[in-house]
Structure formats: C-alpha cells, structure tokens
Design goal:
Strand content: 5-15%
Helix content: 25-40%
Radius of gyration: 22 Å
Shape: globular
Number of strands: 10
CATH topology of the largest domain: Peroxisomal Thiolase, Chain A, domain 1
Structural class: alpha/beta
CATH class of the largest domain: Alpha Beta
Number of helices: 14
CATH superfamily of the largest domain: Thiolase/Chalcone synthase
CATH architecture of the largest domain: 3-Layer(aba) Sandwich
Order of helices and strands: HEHEHEHHEEHHHEHEHEHHHHEE
Distance between the termini: 28 Å
C-alpha cells in the first residue's frame, strides 16, 4: 500500500505536504496491521501531520473510502484526500483454535515459572490444526460461490453464458494491456508491471474443460474460469476540490456526483450479491437518470453469474416492480459499454483494492472521451452494494 501512496505523492508533487486525510482499508489483514492507513501514510512521503483512518466494507472498501473522502470534501471539511485499499491473499493471517489461544494466554499471564509451564501440560496435537480465513457468511454458512450458484439457478443462467462472459473479460483486458491503457495506472512492484492473471490465449474450449467448484454435480455452473481470482494488490485515488487541483495545475479527470450504498436481506429474501441491483436503482432515482444515460459501466465481476443475474434483474418487470418499487423495468444496457477494458474476472480481485481500481479506470475513460457519464458498482459480502456516478470534467 505504501508503494501506491508514494507513487501518488511523486506524481502529484505532494512530498512533505500535509493533505486533509487518507482513508485506506484491507479486508484480510494481520493484527499487526491494525493501523494500516496511518502506517502507510507515514511511509508515503506525505507530511507526518497528515491524518489517516482505516475502513473496511468488504469488496467495496476502497470505493466506500472514496465516497467518505468525497463527502468530506463536498462539505468543506477538507480540500483534498486519498482513498484506497489493499489485500494480499498470498500472505494470509492464519490463526489457531480457541483452545490453543487460551493455553498461550494463560501461560503468558503466569507469574511464576510453574504457572507459565502448567498450561502447556494440556497441549494436544489437535491444537496445532490451523484455521484458515474463509469467505463463509456466518448467517448462512454458505461461501460466496455457493450463494452465487443459488442465484445462477434462480436466474436460469447457463454454464455457457458464464464462460462466454469470462472470455470477453479476458479478451478486453488483454487487448487493453497490449494497447497500453493501463500503463499510467499501474505502479510496478518487485518487477511486476502488469496484472498477471489476464489470459490472452484462453478460449471457450479451455474454459469448458474446468470443473464446477461449488456445485459439483452436472448442474454446477461456477468454475475458477468464470469467477474472479482472489489476488494481491493495492490501489488508491486522489480526490480534491476543483480549486485545489487547478491551483496546482493538476488535471481533473472526472467529478464524483452521486453515491449510494444499499443492503439486502440475503438470509431470507435475496441473493447474497444482488444488492447492486437495488443500489443502482436508488442512485438513478436520486440523480433523476435512466439506466441507459451512461457512456460507461464499470461493474465489479465477482462472478460472471453476478453481473448476468443483475442485468437480467434490471430487465425483469416483476423484479423491478416487487423488489425495486418501479412502474417499469430499468431495461438493458449496451454491453459494448460494460467493463470495456476488462473486469475482475480477468484482472483479479484483491478485495479492498477493487473499488479504487474501478474508479481510476472509469475516470480515465471519461477523461479520454472528453465528455459523458459513468456508473461504478460493486457487490460485497454481507449482502451490500455500493455505487457511484462519475461525470467527465
């Protein structure tokens, strides 16, 4: 995370400058990283007097951070801030059972040598069995993928549909990498200068060979190929008032004009990752726009099934009437405007970093076009959806 922050500091000449605030987060982190945002800020080159705070809202963490920083800017609390997120799936915090932790704590509390040794007499081999982090929902005891299989069946999505969407994501991402679109958005780290999950040579035939991961029967649709991989990464965006940016001669790529966060009852009523369908409906009402009033749609591809189910929901008269309280369906979008530079299925999903990545991509697209409007949307664990609208400067 510090590497990404320092690149922003260097790019915008902020070294030793005190800015309003920094908001960062991680979904899975070690206990030693309890003050992640502040420690990363202290290593970034910003003035030590720059305050920072941690945030965590699952997959939408860095988008939520950007919304909070943007709200503070719009209300005049600060002039400028940085929002971002990071996750490192290759460095997972692995813990042990409650029984083993109790032994450690009791031993540490011992006043005498005998008191420190006595708890260890109860140690057994089973105590050394590690507990790995998981994406199981405590309320349903289902993994995100298992929940998504249910949604895929509910919306009658086929394996072929999911694989075709995944192939398109990889094709667009590979093409964008070759064209250099991401060159000024990516900060190289330890020799890596591109997202290395993108499969330029994949095909429907190769994707079809992969076995379902969650529903192992012949009815399973979700595979490693049509799901986003959990990866390492970090991202951040600089937000500021127009005055602050212009005084420093900095380019304004886009304006964040609206945002919305929604949650659904995924235990009793709705699919775990369907909240964006509701959040987008709400934000459209707030902005008095239609679903078709956008030049670009950047929607997080947690699973191919998640996006395809959401698109079908927006076209469904019954869903829009009974669930969204609308007189008519939101309708369909032009798929040529959806994740035009590839999405999370191809690029990967370092949990907390995805939101800022999407914002950066969308802002650049709008700036290159010189006009227009973009919609960003992210589904999250816990049945939440986070959305934002950007407009070209």
């Amino acid at each position: 995370m510090s590497k990404v922050l320092s690149s922003i500091v260097d790019k915008f000449d902020l070294r030793e400058e005190r800015i309003g605030e920094v908001s960062l987060g991680a979904v899975i982190k070690h206990s030693r990283d309890w003050n992640l945002a502040r420690e990363s800020t202290l290593s970034s080159g910003l003035a030590p007097e720059t305050p920072a705070f941690d945030i965590q809202q699952a997959c939408g963490t860095s988008l939520s951070a950007a919304i909070i920083i943007g709200a503070k800017i719009s209300t005049g609390l600060i002039d400028v801030g940085i929002a971002g997120g990071t996750d490192t799936i290759s460095d997972l915090p692995i813990v042990y059972s409650e029984a083993y932790r109790s032994i450690l704590i009791e031993s540490a509390r011992g006043k005498t040598l005998a008191q420190k040794i006595k708890p260890w007499l109860d140690i057994r081999l089973r105590h050394f069995k590690p507990i790995y982090p998981s994406v199981i929902e405590p309320r349903t005891n289902l993994s995100m993928g298992e929940s998504m299989e249910q949604t895929a069946k509910q919306w009658q999505l086929t394996r072929k549909d999911l694989d075709a969407f995944a192939l398109e994501s990889h094709s667009k991402a590979a093409r964008s990498q070759a064209e250099g679109f991401y060159d000024d958005l990516i900060v190289g780290y330890k020799g890596l200068v591109n997202d290395n999950n993108v499969r330029a040579d994949t095909s429907m035939k190769q994707l079809a060979k992969l076995k379902p991961v969650f529903d192992l029967s012949e009815h399973g649709t979700i595979t490693a190929g049509n799901s986003t991989p959990l990866t390492d990464g970090a991202s951040a965006v600089l937000l500021a008032t127009e005055k602050w940016a212009r005084e420093r001669g900095l380019p304004i790529l886009a304006y964040m004009t609206h945002s919305r966060t929604t949650a659904v009852d995924f235990v009793n009523q709705e699919g775990l990752l369907m909240a964006p369908a509701y959040a987008v409906s709400d934000i459209l009402k707030e902005a008095t726009l239609t679903l078709q009033d956008f030049d670009y749609y950047e929607i997080h591809e947690a699973f191919s099934a998640q996006i395809l189910a959401t698109l079908k929901a927006w076209e469904c008269k019954n869903f829009c009437s009974t669930r969204l309280g609308r007189d008519a369906p939101l309708g369909r979008i032009d798929l040529q405007k959806l994740n035009v530079k590839g999405g999370s299925v191809a690029i990967g999903h370092p949990f907390a970093a995805t939101g800022a990545r999407i914002l950066g991509t969308l802002a650049k697209l709008l700036h290159q076009k010189g006009s227009g409007r973009g919609l960003a949307s992210i589904c999250t664990a816990g049945g939440m959806g986070i959305t934002a609208i950007l407009e070209a400067s």
